Amino acid sequence: MTTNRRRIAWLALLVLPAAVAVADDETDAALARCDRDTGDRLRFLESHLDGSSSYAEGWWLGWTAVYSAGIAVEGARAGRDDDRGARAEAVVSAVKAGVGLADNFLRPPPAKEGARELRAIPTSEPDGCARRLARAEAILRANAADSRHRRFSWKAHAGNLAINLAGALVVAKGFDESSGWASGALGLAVGEGRIWSYPWQAPGALAEYERRFPASGLPPAPKTSWRLEPWGDGARLVVQY
Q1: Which stretches of 107-153 are DSSP H helices?
Q2: Cα–Cα distance between 49 and 115 in angstroms, integer?
Q3: Is 219 helix (H, G, I), strand (E, B) or coil?
Q4: Which of 24-33, 68-77, 206-215 holds the top average pLDDT?
């Protein structure tokens, strides 16, 4: 059995690089049918989209594992803990992990798809190169907008605060368990870590693409600006993007 496993492992090491090389050759052959400018644009776009997909896929898998483990661990705690307050804390923590897991499945980062959709657009058709380029630019723009929204939207941060504050209040006030506040603070920190670690390669790739190909058909990228303005008796920082 051990020998067979070793043979399979060595076979995988030989086959996988060959499969990747074949896929790259097929992409190069497809883009060779396009004119030089379109081909250069597509090589840049598809390379960056595929490069971003690795982190996005890892982010999605990592947080799926974190939340799945949270449900399992906290669910087990709730089932075996005799203390009413501690059991309530475990149940609330399991519910919060379930919400995070559901969000992961309902709203996976679109960047994890890479350039998969583009390879289904044949460049052998008369307008294939133009359609593939238009779709590639649209995907890059959409991924950049998604990254900005998922990191900087006030709703994401307010929602994270709301669910953890509600859970802390239920445990601390409803079950007289003071550790509910610590659990809420930990949940808030974990949620913020998830938000701020969200895939962010697309905006940088979009800016680089627009610098390298200034005649792109993409609409102008939204400009990000920061300013400090008076607010009540103090001041506030306003971000526009």
Answers
A1: 128-152
A2: 6
A3: coil
A4: 68-77
Distance CA 210, CA 219 (A): 10
DSSP state, 118? G
Retrieve residue 228's tokens.
């400090």
Task: Identify residue 21 by its one-letter amino acid code.
Answer: A
Contacts of range 77-83, beta carbons closer than 8 Å, 24 or more positions apart = none
Greatest alpha-carbon pair distance for the chain in Å reads: 75
* Sequence-separated (6 or more) residues with CB below 8 Å from residue 180: 85, 88, 89, 92, 167, 168, 169, 170, 171, 172, 173
Q: Any idea what DSSP says for residue 35?
A: -
Alpha-carbon distance 186 to 206, whole Å? 35
pLDDT level of residue 59 (50, 70, 90 thresholds): very high
235 strand-pairing partners? 230
The yes-or-no verdict on residue 20 having pLDDT over 80 is no
- CA 228 – CA 236 distance, rounded (Å): 6
